[in-house]
Design a protein that fits this description.
Elements lengths: L1 H22 L12 E4 L1 E5 L2 E10 L4 E4 L5 E6 L6 E2 L4 E6 L1 H32 L5 H27 L10 E5 L4 E6 L6 E2 L10 E4 L3 E9 L11 E6 L2 E13 L9 E9 L10 E7 L3 E7 L4 E3 L2 E7 L5 E5 L1 E6 L2 E6 L6 E5 L1 H5 L6
Antiparallel strand pairs: 1-23, 2-17, 3-12, 3-16, 4-11, 5-7, 5-10, 6-9, 7-8, 9-11, 12-15, 13-14, 13-16, 14-15, 17-22, 18-19, 19-20, 21-22
């Protein structure tokens, strides 16, 4: 019984020693059949920086139309996306202000006529030396003032879209430019305030013969972006086309939320195929540079550190810390820590990192 127990203890001790030895096996001594190696490549990079962007209407060619007076929209004459020409009626507005403007005109006309008649009588009296020169000059001033007021009230009616001989209280609202309706801010029957008190326009019209491509550039990429730099523009709506333009402006202040600068490219837009709010991308060429690249799968991320398993002179693989740069397709740039030509682990690094297990 004692002999059997001794043998069991000896066997147990042997197994414990064997288990410990397995756990101490160097990572590089694991079967190489699980590991795929490759060589870090020295290459010349000629890629581009992709900047997310969107399309905007040119603000200098955009107008927000406000009603010239308060009233109710009788009829909207346009819809979003419609082409309009300068002077075209975009809406009809019924307003009590029209009656007031017409009343002001009629009153001014009456006063002006009265002043003219008084001036004519005054001239006769002046010629017969019944009226003094000073009194006649006063009549002239009154007549001139009446004419000015009459002209002011006439112009007011014209601004509202009416003639002095009309009777309607429905005002046509017209477009001051030719362009495309990009927004309609009201509907039939809605009340509108005059331009002095309005907060929203009833129609927004933009000339889309040219558009802005506005990109959001991160701080680290600012050096690549220069005014007048040639850039390629791609749009999600036309994935097989590339548009060419120049950087017209780079902003001076960062967006406090995204911490980016706005870069603006102006593109001609024949046929108005490029629409405001479309998603786009600016492709900015990077300067050619020599670099070391490795497959993405070769890079090991451990918290804030990154590394690559590199084959040493003794044939073993050791984890070496590296600094990673930009991705280039399936490869990634290594900024420091690795030289071209060194043998690295492409896949299977997990077998080097995982400890061996035993019974």
């Amino acid at each position: 019984m004692m002999r059997t127990r001794s043998v069991a203890l000896l066997l147990s001790a042997t197994l414990m020693v064997t288990g410990c030895k397995k756990k101490e096996t160097p990572e590089a001594d694991l079967p190489a059949s699980n590991i795929v190696t490759t060589t870090a490549r020295s290459t010349t990079l000629n890629d581009s920086l992709a900047v997310p962007a969107h399309i905007e209407a040119n603000p200098t060619q955009t107008v927000h139309i406000y009603p010239p007076l308060s009233g109710r929209i009788v009829e909207m004459k346009v819809v979003a996306g419609q082409e309009v020409h300068k002077g075209q009626v975009v809406a009809l507005l019924q307003s009590g202000d029209v009656a007031s403007a017409r009343s002001d005109f009629e009153k001014a006309k009456t006063e002006s006529d009265r002043a003219d008649r008084a001036l004519a009588r005054g001239k006769i009296l002046l010629d017969h030396e019944v009226l003094s020169q000073a009194a006649y000059l006063e009549l002239q001033a009154t007549a001139a003032s009446g004419h000015a007021e009459l002209e002011r009230t006439r112009q007011r009616l014209h601004e509202l879209g009416f003639s002095e001989n009309g009777t309607s209280d429905v005002a046509p609202i017209t477009s001051p430019i030719s362009g495309t309706v990009i927004d309609v801010g009201t509907a039939n029957g809605e009340l509108q305030k005059s331009v002095d008190n309005a907060t929203n326009g009833i129609v927004t019209i933009a000339n889309l013969d040219s558009v802005w491509i506005v990109g959001e550039v991160f701080e680290r990429d600012i050096a690549l972006l220069k005014q007048s730099e040639n850039v390629d523009v791609t749009v999600q709506a036309y994935p097989n086309e590339t548009f060419h333009g120049r950087v017209a402006n780079v902003g001076d202040t960062f967006d406090p939320t995204t911490h980016t600068l706005r870069a603006r490219v102006v593109l001609p837009n024949p046929g108005h195929r490029l629409k405001p709010a479309m998603f786009a991308s600016l492709k900015i060429a990077r300067p050619s540079q020599n670099a070391v690249v490795v497959p993405n799968t070769a890079v090991i991320h451990d918290g804030e550190s990154t590394g690559v398993y590199v084959k040493g002179a003794d044939g073993k693989f050791n984890l070496r810390q590296v600094k990673v740069g930009a991705a280039h397709g399936d490869d990634v740039e290594i900024l420091s820590g690795l030289q071209g030509g060194e043998t690295i682990v492409k896949t299977g690094a997990s077998f080097l990192r995982a400890p061996a297990t035993g019974d």
